[in-house]
Amino acid sequence: DADVTQTPRNRITKTGKRIMLECSQTKGHDRMYWYRQDPGLGLRLIYYSFDVKDINKGEISDGYSVSRQAQAKFSLSLESAIPNQTALYFCATSIDGATDTQYFGPGTRLTVL
Amino acid sequence: DQQVKQNSPSLSVQEGRISILNCDYTNSMFDYFLWYKKYPAEGPTFLISISSIKDKNEDGRFTVFLNKSAKHLSLHIVPSQPGDSAVYFCAARAQGAQKLVFGQGTRLTINP
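Structure tokens for the assembled complex are given below, as produced in the milestone run.
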């Protein structure tokens, strides 16, 4: 079984709709992250959380919000989706910041029409 | 402002030969570097890392070299195998920071 799971794996939605992407992990890690991948831009950090009560903005947080419901769950929301949020979204976890090896989920491909 | 740059979007190498993937960075506060490998329809997976106190780290067929004065690191794969065909991301972490900065990725294709 996968240690980091993401749902849905694929989603097509329309401009203005609210979308939630969910991430669950069984690794027992405190730290969780949301990234988006765009061609030519690599992985960019949207939000990260070091425990249930800790939420931090990444480099591209505008237009997104997150919720850390439990140690194992970290959700990303697009309150009003727009076409330039079409991308591949990855959730990741890590055990600490000393080495910062991050473990990624399989990704969610989101298309906003 | 791209602090970590992978200037080659793609690289094609013959099976059995050496693959060299390059990465440049601008932030002198980066002290830890990682390489991740990504197959289609999967998330990136950790491959190898290096601390700034070292200039080389080796793990089987994979070796990472760090040249701090040039702010450059490279990943060598010897010998290259078809299963190495993937997108490779380099990433860096600044001293005291709690998050990674990723490069744009290089798509490596190993030809039989």
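Chain A is about 0% helix and 60% strand. The mean pLDDT of chain A is 93. Further analysis is deferred to the final report.
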